[in-house]
Amino acid sequence: MVSLDRDVMNEMNKYLDGITMEEILIRNTKMFHYQVMFTSDQMKQDIEVLDLRPRAYNCLRRSGFNTISNLVNGVYTKETETSKRQLLKIRNLGRNTAEEILMKLFYYQFQILPEEKKKEYLLEVQQLNQ
Q1: Helix axes 95-112, 54-62, angle to 10 degrees
Q2: Measured distance CA(4)–CA(115) in Å, rounded
Q3: Cα distance between residue 126 and residue 19, in whole Å
Q4: In a 10 Å sphere around its CB, with 0-12 CB exposed, 13-18 middle and 19+ buried, how is residue 15 labelled?
Q5: Helix (H) or strand (E) holding 22
Q6: pLDDT 10s digit of each residue in the chain, 130 long?
């Protein structure tokens, strides 16, 4: 699993009781679950807001994933396949890059949540990954 950004991790840990986000990720290295819930305005944003490394960014762009909406609708739609498996179908995109994309999407979603919803969201993530 891609390592957590320290600042994001510290902020997430403020909302969790008795466990850290890092521990949740370590326990769920094979399959990490989180719900995607962006507003329509957020879905229109360019993938640039995810602050991806060049390989991830370029692979997504070449495959037509230019906005958050393109990305979410392109990799979170098939119930028979994980989002990671769907990303791995993109040319020149490997396991680490797929994990980076999914984690950056998770970080971004957390960071743009209103303060009063962050704790509830992380508790839901914790519940999904037990």
Answers
A1: 90
A2: 20
A3: 9
A4: middle
A5: helix 21-27
A6: 455 578 888 899 999 988 988 888 888 777 788 888 889 999 999 999 999 999 999 999 999 999 999 999 888 766 777 888 889 999 999 999 998 999 999 999 999 999 999 999 999 999 888 8
Q: What is the pTM of this model?
A: 0.85
The contacts of residue 115 (CB under 8 Å, 6+ apart) are none
| Rounded distance between C-alpha atoms, residue 84 and residue 121, angstroms | 21
As a whole number of Å, the CA-based R_g of the chain is 14
Helix, coil or strand: residue 37 = coil
66 to 2, 36, 43: CA distances (angstroms): 22, 17, 11
